[in-house]
From TrEMBL:
It comes from the Bacteria. The lineage of its organism: Bacteria, Pseudomonadati, Pseudomonadota, Alphaproteobacteria, Hyphomicrobiales. This is FUSC family protein. GO terms for cellular component: membrane. InterPro entries: Memb_transporter_dom. It comes from Kaistia nematophila.
């Protein structure tokens, strides 16, 4: 189906307008939201105190990403999503930074990151979220190539932020009486499922194989685009594409629309705050922590509202490296539009591939 027909047929305007910025108060876990904020504050404060806000930025980004795992469920261990994410992000940050100057390695590792992210859809939302954090850490680190020691330093900062987040969140859980084991867990998502997609699910007639291959190609193409076009903060393009692409093309369309609208809204919020407050480093850190708490709170609400809060938070976080907030939000919008459209084209391609594969496996009609 051509892209313009897909968009016209699959954008229910009324439903989108109702759900885009919907706020669902009952889905907020206030104790977990509050528990996720101190780790970021500590990382940012330490960076500012030591005169290296860029170090605090990297550590805080690790804490921010790992914090979302507190709201995921993967195995019966409550902290498992955070632990899986933290370990994989640490390795991915080292790998991305160390291989960032070698294009053949970047192509290889981008394909692996994309395939894992696409294939993990078959293992459930938590498995997909975990592999997505690995991919994000990899593509962000790729923008900052370094030698072995420099790459290890970056990985160490991500590890420090992630471990601090896990320690503080699990401590908070103990204090409020939450068990480390989720007794009501139904066992539908196990750690083995994270790797099962590389086994019997990846067969020649598998939907999982097709989305994994498509996502790998998308990851490589978006990475090459950022390298050749020299787009500022270009790592947001492959990250956006991987976040948006879903096995169902109509779901991809929804996420493209919601993410672009949410990004524009978040950019507007960040621009307005920056224009009114003109924040210094300390105020930037306060804004980042506050907006991070808002982002954690909005996860179960409308996707565009969640994206808006994340966009505003990331805009101020990246600004700690010295880039003006206005430039950051402009780069974010450009990357979101490019990544979203490329994900949409990929979804259309996967849908066409699915139709072709099913037609090839249908039994011939009986002669009468």
């Amino acid at each position: 189906m051509p892209v313009h027909r897909l968009l016209r047929a699959r954008i229910p305007v009324r439903r989108y307008s109702q759900e885009m910025f919907a706020f669902r108060r009952g889905d907020i876990r206030p104790e977990t939201v509050i528990a996720c904020m101190p780790a970021m504050a500590i990382c940012l404060a330490a960076g500012i105190f030591l005169g290296r806000p860029d170090y605090g930025l990297v550590a805080a980004s690790g804490a921010f990403s790992v914090g979302f795992g507190a709201f995921q469920r993967f195995t019966a261990v409550r902290a498992a999503p955070m632990l899986f994410a933290m370990v994989g992000m640490t390795f991915a940050a080292w790998l991305g930074s160390f291989s960032g100057g070698y294009l053949p390695l970047m192509i290889l590792f981008s394909a692996v990151a994309g395939a894992l992210c696409g294939g993990a859809n078959a293992a459930g939302p938590a498995a997909w979220w975990i592999t997505l954090q690995w991919a994000i850490a990899f593509f962000v680190a790729d923008a900052y190539p370094a030698d072995m020691m420099g790459a290890l330093g970056r990985a160490g900062l991500v590890f420090t932020g992630g471990v601090l987040q896990i320690v503080l969140v699990t401590t908070a859980w103990v204090l409020v009486g939450k068990s480390a084991i989720i007794r009501e867990h139904d066992g539908t998502e196990r750690w083995q499922d994270l790797f099962a997609v590389m086994g019997h699910r990846l067969t020649g007639h598998s939907d999982t194989l097709r989305i994994a291959v498509a996502t790998a190609i998308l990851a490589v193409l978006t990475m090459l685009l950022t390298k050749t076009a020299h787009i500022p903060n270009g790592y947001w393009i492959p990250v956006t594409a991987l976040i948006i692409l879903k096995p169902q093309s109509d779901k991809t369309v929804e996420r493209v629309v919601f993410r672009i609208c949410g990004t524009v809204a978040g950019a507007g919020i960040a621009t307005l705050i920056a224009a009114v407050l003109r924040p210094d480093e300390s105020l930037l850190a306060v804004l980042v922590v506050g907006l991070a708490g808002l982002a954690y709170s909005m996860q179960r609400s409308g996707y565009a509202a969640f994206v808006a809060s994340v966009t505003a938070c990331v805009a101020f976080l990246v600004s700690l490296a010295g880039l003006p907030e206005i430039e950051v939000v402009k780069h974010r919008i450009i990357a979101t539009v490019i990544g979203g459209l490329l994900a949409l084209v990929t979804a259309v391609g996967v849908e066409a591939w699915d139709r072709y594969a099913r037609r090839g496996t249908q039994p011939p009609a009986a002669e009468g």
